[in-house]
Amino acid sequence: MKDIVQKLDLADETAGRLDWLGEFGKDSEGGVSRLLYTKEWVEGQHALKEWMESEGLDARFDEIGNLYGTLKGKNPNETVLTGSHVDTVTNGGRYDGAYGIVAGIIALKYLKKHFGEPVRNIEVVSMAEEEGSRFPYSFWGSKNIVGLAKREDVESIKDFDGVPFVEAMKNAGFGFKDNAEGRKDLKAFVEVHVEQGSVLETEETAIGVVNNIVGQRRYTVEITGQANHAGTTPMGYRKDALYASSHMIHEIISMARKVGDPLVTTVGKIEAYPNIVNVVPGKAIFTIDVRHTDKEAIVSFTEQMTAKMQDIAKEHEVEMNIDLWMDEDPVPMDQTVVELIEKQCEANGLNYKLMHSGAGHDSQIFAPVVPTAMLFVPSLKGISHNPAEFTEPTDLAEGVKALIGALYELGYKE
Amino acid sequence: MKDIVQKLDLADETAGRLDWLGEFGKDSEGGVSRLLYTKEWVEGQHALKEWMESEGLDARFDEIGNLYGTLKGKNPNETVLTGSHVDTVTNGGRYDGAYGIVAGIIALKYLKKHFGEPVRNIEVVSMAEEEGSRFPYSFWGSKNIVGLAKREDVESIKDFDGVPFVEAMKNAGFGFKDNAEGRKDLKAFVEVHVEQGSVLETEETAIGVVNNIVGQRRYTVEITGQANHAGTTPMGYRKDALYASSHMIHEIISMARKVGDPLVTTVGKIEAYPNIVNVVPGKAIFTIDVRHTDKEAIVSFTEQMTAKMQDIAKEHEVEMNIDLWMDEDPVPMDQTVVELIEKQCEANGLNYKLMHSGAGHDSQIFAPVVPTAMLFVPSLKGISHNPAEFTEPTDLAEGVKALIGALYELGYKE
């Protein structure tokens, strides 16, 4: 196994296939816009189906448009699944999602070539949607696979042009599943993805074996003070919403830095009102995004955080309204699969590290019902959701090798 | 004098005239939009001219559209001037500017009625423009009176609809002055204005005698860090432009509060980039507005402020660019006129306090060349540049009484 894996020369092939796939939805700004059920998306999925077939895989769509390519095993009732999502954000890059599909097809190609028929099916999936970029709904692909997608959640939603979800799906040649239940044959899911962060790059490590996907809470905070003339209102008369907000933001982020990894806390968005140079802001609205791999840690930090903010609001004599509008639990990966991947990386001489994912992925939809793990490769400068997304071809190849090892272990062993 | 002044019942008349003037440019949102050289402005000025004439004043426009109403004195070569600007901001109130004109006309009416011909001319002016709301130019009215207006400053400017200043002026029936020199006959200027702050209201004082108009510096600060994914970027890897900015804003405002009156410092405007909940801000831009009655204090505070900001930028490893784009010196009022007004207020039993103006006014254009002072009346909750601008009719009346006293002292004494 080690001899075969180490001799594989996958860099050009993987990078080349990503360039090829990136042509579907290539936009005028040099990025990729391949949104669910658009013309570009349909063409991309059909091109992937042809490629799968040309590599000798059994290729088929499910009802909603997830594309599968299967390397059939002796036991047709058990399937090891790999893959990722084919959709992109608007003006995204060539790697997010796409890399997991390309890595999967190439891995299956070489598994078939070197090891023949597996014990159970090994399948690559090009999932319909994960990003939530066209319609206000995310994980449409994976949720349909595991049986979490609900018809009523998408029946009345529309895209930014007013096109109904159902109409777009129909025009793309797809429809709802007759049977809303999830697949029962899945024995494992392994997703390969670009890190979208800079930990691997900074630590000069090719592969991240993900043992946890963070949970997150998102808040919108509205601070109400009093708008006043910047010249005629003495400092002592003011209820400055931006002064109070700045105090809070500085405290929140400082607290999060003190707590340290894996906690991350971000104030990404702020608006002041009326937002004029010579008016004391009467209102300020900002967001908070808190993530950690441990639910207890999220609860504990956000409790301290809101208590601190309440103190500051009181001190500044402003009103505060905190709205918690997202509260997602962390999703642990399957420890058996994680350890199996680690062992394979070691056995094949690949440079890896255990890490968590700070971003959401299809794997978090699979993990509660299927033994799931993820593999990361470095993202240049952590850039993602951007045309400048880039991973070195040699790193792309290492990721495929790690996937080959994992799928071999999961698919060819009794 | 005291008997006459105290018996005057001016509340309804003054408030009524402000309502009447507010009809010129009354907008659909309940405010007043009477911008320079618009139809509403032209109609308002001509209506004021008729009113001046009906009160027995000699009324005339100058070349650019300043309107004067004169109570002629024995000495025709000396003039005591009062008044303010007739233009408003977009969707402004009924008091800012307008009150100074209405107060002036009513003061002249009662001076004429009770004291007849003065020693020197007493004149009320309805100045063309102060706000800079239509064109990118402020104080067009007062600058023309004192000879500071320059033809080349307005010759190529346009309003938001692309209408050239010169064309708008021509269509309103006005043009440039032949002689760019300022008036030589002015012996004093006294402007009555709403405070646009809440000091008088809070201290339950009807009249503010202004001894100084603050100087101010305005800055735009640009902080550049690095935009990163909010989930995948550990706290220690970040260069968070909004975290650094919050630290600065909190420090700056706290420093200003510590220094205390009459220093005021405002961060009124902030923009974060890309301003998305799940992206660490790579850039933040905010403004700073610093005002004080003493130039040295402004210099000293802003030096400390920028030094502190540089320290914070260094600590946060972000780049900082500070642009000082406004630097106006404080303008002291004439101490002789100020004392004369104070004495008159005392003599007439009016409740006043000495104070500075935190906002800019036409008086700051006059003060360097003509002995100048200002009178303030309370603004409800300090609200200004807003349809909700309001001053109690009884307070409006007190301001007119103080003006009558001042103009009597300046116009009827040898």
TrEMBL record, chains A, B:
<keyword id="KW-0378">Hydrolase</keyword>
<dbReference type="InterPro" id="IPR010158">
    <property type="entry name" value="Amidase_Cbmase"/>
</dbReference>
<dbReference type="GO" id="GO:0047652">
    <property type="term" value="F:allantoate deiminase activity"/>
</dbReference>
<protein>
    <submittedName>
        <fullName>Allantoate deiminase</fullName>
        <ecNumber>3.5.3.9</ecNumber>
    </submittedName>
</protein>
<dbReference type="InterPro" id="IPR011650">
    <property type="entry name" value="Peptidase_M20_dimer"/>
</dbReference>
<dbReference type="Pfam" id="PF07687">
    <property type="entry name" value="M20_dimer"/>
</dbReference>
<comment type="similarity">
    <text>Belongs to the peptidase M20 family.</text>
</comment>
<dbReference type="InterPro" id="IPR036264">
    <property type="entry name" value="Bact_exopeptidase_dim_dom"/>
</dbReference>
<dbReference type="Pfam" id="PF01546">
    <property type="entry name" value="Peptidase_M20"/>
</dbReference>
<feature type="domain" description="Peptidase M20 dimerisation">
    <location>
        <begin position="215"/>
        <end position="316"/>
    </location>
</feature>
<dbReference type="InterPro" id="IPR002933">
    <property type="entry name" value="Peptidase_M20"/>
</dbReference>
